[in-house]
Specification:
- The protein has 367 residues and is of the alpha+beta class.
- Helix content is 32%, strand content 29%.
- An eight-stranded antiparallel sheet has the order 4-3-2-1-5-6-7-8, covered by helices on one side. Strands 9, 10, 13, 14 and 15 form a five-stranded antiparallel sheet that branches.
- Residues 1-22, 306-310 and 327-366 have low confidence and may be disordered.
- This is Ig-like domain-containing protein.
- It holds the Pfam family MHC_I.
- Residues 1-24 form the signal peptide.
- Residues 345-357 have a biased composition (Polar residues).
């Protein structure tokens, strides 16, 4: 059956793939998403590659422009160091586009599907934690679901669906290629991540503390109070925020909003709690972030407004969430379709994220 809900699937997948650690010590990530769709419409590109550094788009390619281009000013330094970089990467991207088109047709036949809207994706990336621990992944998706995933510890592929068994056998047999994938994820990808951090250090390594406000209201029906702790304008996105009661973490009657980006590339987040007004003094909103010299513990104040003020806060949160969904959906529909897996196989500096890409393309063709 054709995937008529592809934009929604892409939105969901984007939320998953861009989900770096939201809490704890700062980490840095580099991720790539490749997407090919069988029936683009209304100007949608048939094939898209998007690269993300710490959740921000830094390179982009699509079948309409036929060019790999920087999306942040600091990536222009790459072209200055290697004048042929963008020409070379564009050529590789065009070759990958053709391979994805062929793989899409192979999978459509394997699933015994009719012509229509279908989607294949390739996702990969690496992450460097503050304690220098490393992580990496490489996987393919079809119709919005995981098709096959690379296990870099065993150098084998995991196939969660029967249709992927053929692909698994082909890829498992390529031991040299699988070792290359492991080496890329654990070494080369990290090297380029650190290089890009040095290029974009003024943006990617900056710290901006959150502005924190706590507001509340009394529920007329049962006399309980609802308080919202709102954090805004912080960077990096990793943040620890939770309610405490008598100094201990308190999760009962709490609700956590989504951590989301602002237009200025900072982030916002909120959490709420419902309490008995008689125990208001026992609760605090606890916040830890790299931009703060020390953790914050904000006491709850007696609500000074009725339902209307909190209603505005909640409405604001909902509107912000809807705007975020709209922005992401628009981006996905028009150019940023989940392609997390390509650009990451360089074996030399000049090859950057795509040197060695031919081996990754071979994996894509193995479908």
């Amino acid at each position: 059956m054709a995937l008529r809900s592809a934009p929604l699937w892409l939105l969901v997948l984007l939320a998953v793939a861009l989900q770096d650690s939201c809490f704890g010590a700062s980490s840095h990530s580099m991720k790539y998403f490749y997407t090919s769709i069988s029936e683009p419409s209304q100007g949608q590109p048939q094939f898209v590659i998007v690269g993300y550094m710490d959740g921000q788009v830094f390179v982009h390619y699509d079948s309409n422009s036929q060019k790999l281009q920087p999306r942040v000013s600091w990536m222009e330094k790459v072209g200055k160091e290697d004048p042929q970089y963008w020409v070379r990467q564009t050529q590789i991207s065009r070759g990958t586009e053709e391979m994805f088109r062929e793989s899409l047709e192979i999978l459509r036949n394997r699933y015994n599907q009719s012509e229509g809207l279908h989607i294949i994706q390739w996702m990969y990336g690496c992450e460097l934690q503050a304690n220098r621990s490393k992580g990496g992944y490489l996987k393919y998706g079809y119709e919005g679901r995981t098709f096959i995933t690379f296990d870099k510890e065993t150098l084998t592929w995991e196939a969660p669906v029967p249709q992927a068994q053929i692909t698994k056998r082909k890829l498992d047999a390529l031991s040299g290629q699988n070792y290359h994938f492991k080496s890329y994820l654990e070494e080369t990808c990290i090297e380029w991540l650190e290089k890009y951090l040095s290029y974009g250090n003024e943006t990617l390594l900056r710290t901006e503390p959150p502005g924190v406000t706590v507001r509340g209201k009394t529920e007329v029906e049962d006399g309980m109070e609802t308080h919202i702790c709102r954090l805004d304008g912080f960077y990096p996105r990793e943040i620890d925020a939770f309610w405490t009661r008598d100094g201990e973490v308190w999760e009962e009657e709490t609700f956590h909003g989504a951590l989301a980006p602002n237009a200025d590339e900072t982030y916002h987040y909120w959490l709420s709690i419902q309490i008995d007004p008689k125990e208001r003094g026992r609760y605090r909103c606890h916040v830890e972030h790299d931009g703060l010299q020390k953790p914050l513990d904000l006491a709850l104040e007696e609500p000074t407004s009725s339902k209307s003020n909190l209603g505005l806060i909640i409405i604001g949160c909902i509107v912000a969430a809807l705007v975020l969904v709209g922005v992401i959906a628009g981006i996905l529909v028009f150019f940023k379709r989940r392609q997390d897996g390509y650009k990451a196989t360089p074996t030399s500096d000049k090859g950057s994220n795509s040197s060695g890409q031919g081996k990754l393309e071979a994996a894509a063709a193995a479908a």
